Amino acid sequence: MTAMRIGIIAGEASGDILGADLIRAIKQRYPDAEFEGVGGPLMIEQGCRSLCEMDRLSVMGIVEPLKRLPELLRLRRLLKSHFLSWQPAIVIGIDSPDFNLNIELFLRQRGIKTLHYVSPSVWAWRQGRVKKIAKAVDHMLTLFPFEEHFYQEHGVPVTCVGHPLADQISMEDQRAVARTELDVEDGHPVLAILPGSRGGEVAQLIAPFLHTAQWLRRAQPNIEFLIPAANLERKQQILQAIAALSRDLPVRVVLGQSRTVMAASDVVLMASGTTSLEALLLQRPMVVAYRFGKWSYKLLSRLVKTPFFSLPNLLAQRALVPELLQDEVCAEVIGPLLLEQLNNANHREALISEFQTIHRQLAKEASERAADVVLQCAGVAHA
User: Fold this and answer.
1) DSSP summary character for residue 57
2) Tens digits of residue pLDDT in 229-268
3) Is residue 382 part of a domain?
4) Partner of 129 at 20 to 30 A CA spacing, among 45, 147, 162, 249?
5) What angle do CA 59, 62, 65 make, to 5 degrees?
6) Would you place residue 327 in the very low, low, confident or very high pLDDT band (cuts 50, 70, 90)?
7) The whole model's pTM is what?
8) Do you know which PANTHER family this protein is assigned to (predicted)?
């Protein structure tokens, strides 16, 4: 009997996390299942055969991907050809919609079942894309309830599976354990600074974030700073920025361990992204910021249909945490907001209560639920 074949494509570190846990959940039911496509180290560790390095798909913004267009088109052709030849039971695109939906549409038109895991921000901008999504996928898996409602309104088969992070992160406060692990002294407030995982993000955000640290140091002299670096390249980039700005700032750069760093902190300053959900689940007050390239921002600002961009605010459907864009991302704006988050105990308690409510809503055993839908769409009975 031929082993079940599943195609799977992830283009970002967050997709690698989701993909690895999904593979694990499917293999619990079908240990001999084969997985091929594109994945990072976590998916490869779970047994996925990656046809190229995942980083080749990792691009940001609108203008920036144009510079890599020939390579991305070549990778698309490679994957389309491979899956047509390999004939998997289903192909799963994880996030990276501009890359994956084109492949999913092509394969579905040729009789291969397709599923997309992690909704594009179609509810926020370029809502017309939902028509292409309806043609491209047999089923959409969303992480958040408000996304499920959007697809239901547009007649697209959809299941909200919740978020695996909500299953993984305990609702118990992990500050003491994290501070012990990182050798952080008690008695000092700690700001976690997360300027992003991509080089472009760090280039846009590290200077204003460090200027904010200087501002806070003047307002609260005993404060300390922790910065997790996504990899050795990002660590070097961050250390160079610190050296150029200030050698006496009490900042420690840690390789990886972003979740531990946030858990050890009292407040977080971060780039917008999945890490803001982690901060919410860790019950940490935060300020979320982002800066796009000039032309990307001009295009995006005309298309966005939602008043919020950070996950905590999108999930709450109101302004739970401060979020800042472009020229707002400066020490004079961020500093007072962080100081308020640090020193207003009543606000902190109310915020943590809101975060716990959202945590409970998202904890649904996401990967197991996602595996159930994948196997159902693939027409495979549960083992």
Assistant:
1) G
2) 988 999 999 999 999 887 778 899 999 899 999 999 999 9
3) no
4) 162
5) 40
6) confident
7) 0.76
8) LIPID-A-DISACCHARIDE SYNTHASE, LIPID-A-DISACCHARIDE SYNTHASE, MITOCHONDRIAL-RELATED
